[in-house]
Amino acid sequence: MNTLLQFAQNSYDYTYTTSNVDAGTAAGISAGIFLFGLIFVVIAYVVSALFLGRIFKKAGIESWIAWVPFYNTWKLLEIGGQQGFWAVLAIIPFVQYVSIVFIFIAMYNIGLKFGKPGAFVVLGIFLPIVWFIWLAVDDSKWNESLGAPSKAVEHTGGTTPPTAPTAAV
I need a surface site. Which of 31, 74, 80, 166 has the fewest CB within 10 A? Predict the structure, then answer.
């Protein structure tokens, strides 16, 4: 019995190490991963802002808006026929999922306004950067009469829907 107790006690005395990397090397690796991630995020933001600016220009919205965080999503929602406040509500946990649904609906309407089929939104859902690039560089024209009406106040471009004739008095 004494041998079994001694064996059990000795088995807990081992120090387990998971790596032979010292703290300085681990800090360097962590800094490298952080720097790579930061560079990736900045490049993705610049690329998406450039192409979103071109989409805004086609839609009659000033292209500089694409560079302003939250406001660019607000305008994207508005030209897609949705309420812009969903852009700000996207920072609230769990509400963000509802906001994402409205962004996808806006992307669907924007695709329709550029003459794309409804299934084009699938590209926007799974590969949004490709969706931005495609709409920005192709020769499609903005047609306000397609999809949900735009809620953007300063919208001046594209084709406007025909107005009903007024009756003479």
Answer: 166
Q: Is residue 15 over pLDDT 80?
A: no
Give the global pTM: 0.72
Per-residue pLDDT of 74-87, as tens digits, reads: 999 999 999 999 99
Count Cα atoms within 13 angstroms, Cβ side, for 56. Answer: 24
The dihedrals phi and psi of 8, each to the nearest 5 degrees, come to: -65, -40
Q: Can you point out the beta strands (E) in 53-143?
A: none
Q: Nearest-CA neighbor of 106 among 46, 151, 155?
A: 151
Give the pLDDT score at 89: 92
Percent of the chain with pLDDT over 90: 66
72 within 8 A of 88, measured Cβ to Cβ:
no
Q: Which two tokens stand for residue 102?
A: 């409205």
Beta-bridge partners for 143: 159
CA separation for the pair 103, 122 (Å, rounded): 13
Among all chains, which residue has been given the structure tokens 């406040």? Answer: 85
56 near 65, Cβ under 8 Å?
yes
**What tokens does 63 get?**
């292209």
